[in-house]
Amino acid sequence: APFGVGFSASGVSHWCYADAVLAFLGGACALQSTLGATREALLQLLMACPRHLNLMDLKRSVSEVPGVVSLHDLHVWQIGRSRSCSAHLVIRDVNESVQLLRACTAIAKSEHGLDEVTFQIEIEGNFDTENDRLRLSSNTCHDTR
Asked: The pTM is what?
């Protein structure tokens, strides 16, 4: 036999083990090649924060817009290729609300790659942010206490 690998004591060819070894190797290759796609699908099903998005930077850049007092209840998630965000935006002057909303939305979209942005405007003094504000954690897409 050109590829003789021998026989067991009972006379069975050692080739019978090749099927199991090849099946294991094929399964391992399939698992390894689909691991990334499975992880991405799970993250989207759990509505996890998009990778490579720094929430602290997003919160800081929006909060630095003149006229914005603070940003709280920030939520960011991704469905498919669309990245979405919602937050409460506390501003000083109700007369600047449209201008500030446009500026903050533009920053979130252009500087942070968000596709859908929803800000709820709150006027400073008309809302107690201390009772509703949550602290942002570096490892979650939602404000947490």
From this structure: 0.62
